[in-house]
Structures are given as structure tokens and as C-alpha cells.
Prior knowledge:
single chain, alpha+beta, Aminopeptidase, seven-stranded mixed beta sheet, 5 helices, 34% helix, globular
Amino acid sequence: MVRVREMDExxxxxxxxxxxxxxxxxxxxxxxxxxxxxxxxEDDAARRRERFxxxxxxxxxxxxxxxxxxxxxxxxxxxxxxxxxxxxxxEVYALYVAPDLIGTGVGRRLLGEAHAAMKEQGFExxxxxxxxxxxxxxxxxxxxxxxxxxxxxxxxxxxxxLCELRYLREL
Length: 171
């Protein structure tokens, strides 16, 4: 059983490990291996510490705690994009679970808590972006009520352009 709480500075190293290992596991065969190999927990933690040092951020960060400490993390806040006719939109910026715990309900629990927080903040719709080739994540979000709305954007990783799909869900 996991418990979810707001992330604090003491969680930075663990969250960075979850994020980096999550990228390396989820995106193997999708994102160039050279990009994944260059990711380090230390670099990610340094960026995260910098972000935490700036007061007044608009995003919410939640961690899922298991017996070994943080085992999952979600970051969400106001949408960075406008969607015509969708009302006030929140966005899930990132969701990662320790790779050995994928499929155990940790991600579902974090997503549910983020949805509740966004709804409490007055958001009517949740948006997120997912790599087109990440079928496992797409299935996870579809089971959670998200659907692609046809919008796409391209990201470049070590010279390789990958397409992301925008998914929406009513809160």
C-alpha cells in the first residue's frame, strides 16, 4: 500500500532516480539510446534542486511512498497550451513510477490524486503529452479516461524527431 503526499526537498534524489530510471526503461527502443545513456540522476537532481529553490512555482508535485521511500512521482499544473472549448485546463507534466513497480497501481493512485487536486483548483479538463511510440503509456492513460484529440508536437532527441500526441480528459 502506498501513501501519497506533497513532494519536498528531501525527496529530490529519490524522485530524480525514479525519473531517470523511468525514462531509461519506458523509452528504450523509442528515444535514441545515446540520449538515455547520457541521463544522470545527479544532473536531474541538480535541475530539480534549482526548481525547488525558486519560490512560488505553479506546479504541484506529489510522491507515492512505499516501504522503501518514494516509489512514484507526478508533476501537474496549469496547461501550457490552449484548447478551444475545453474550459480551464490543467496538465500532467510528468508521471513516473519505479520501473519494478509499474502495473501495481502506483501510477493510477498518483494520477487520481493529481486529478482531484486539479479539480479542486478549478480545472475542468486535464491534458498531457505522450510519445506516439509509447504504447504502454498510451494504454495506461486511455484506461484512465484520456483520449487523443488529434494535436501533435515534435521533440528532437539526439537528432531524432519523435512525435508526441496530446491527450485530454474531463475532470
